[in-house]
């Protein structure tokens, strides 16, 4: 099934002039995360490049961003959310909406994996990053959600 979907995506994208977005929508919306990972692997094996590169080449804008996000989440959700958290706290100011959304929605699901990935990628604990990027009761609230440092 993964090879069949990889072939369908190739035909809908790189093999043709233009892009058959309906095929991308069908595959990316109707398949599980594990299946999309298998499709990416099959695509690479069959066509010598990863699906992410094909998406970059054949789509654009919000549609491209949505497809890449689904693919990233299927491959390694913890890495994806660690990257979002880093982006939310990087530079001057904090994107508080993004920071709150990720921490609140992932706390009881996979935050321990996100914290480990954050530390691995950025050589700093997520708790330390939140501590330095926030203040007051807001900081206390977020750190309580994150629980003790890992």
TrEMBL record:
Q: Which organism is it from?
A: Salix udensis
What Gene Ontology terms describe what this protein does at the molecular function level?
calcium ion binding; calcium-dependent phospholipid binding; phosphatidylserine binding
* Keywords for this protein: Annexin, Calcium, Calcium/phospholipid-binding, Repeat
Q: Which family does it belong to?
A: Belongs to the annexin family.
Domain comment quoted from the record: A pair of annexin repeats may form one binding site for calcium and phospholipid.
Q: Which BP terms from GO are recorded?
A: response to cold; response to heat; response to salt stress; response to water deprivation
Q: Which GO terms describe its cellular component?
A: cytoplasm; plasma membrane
Q: What is this protein called?
A: Annexin
């Amino acid at each position: 099934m993964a090879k069949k979907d990889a072939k369908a995506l190739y035909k809908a994208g790189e093999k043709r002039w233009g892009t058959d977005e309906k095929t991308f929508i069908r595959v990316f919306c109707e398949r599980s995360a594990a299946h999309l990972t298998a499709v990416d692997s099959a695509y690479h094996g069959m066509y010598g490049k990863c699906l992410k590169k094909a998406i970059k080449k054949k789509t654009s804008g919000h549609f491209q961003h949505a497809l890449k996000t689904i693919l990233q989440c299927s491959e390694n959700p913890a890495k994806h959310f660690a990257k979002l958290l880093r982006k939310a706290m990087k530079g001057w100011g904090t994107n508080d909406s993004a920071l709150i959304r990720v921490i609140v929605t992932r706390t009881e699901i996979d935050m321990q994996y996100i914290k480990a990935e954050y530390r691995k990628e950025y050589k700093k604990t997520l708790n330390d990053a939140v501590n330095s990027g926030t203040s007051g009761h807001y900081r206390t609230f977020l750190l309580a959600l994150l629980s003790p440092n890992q």
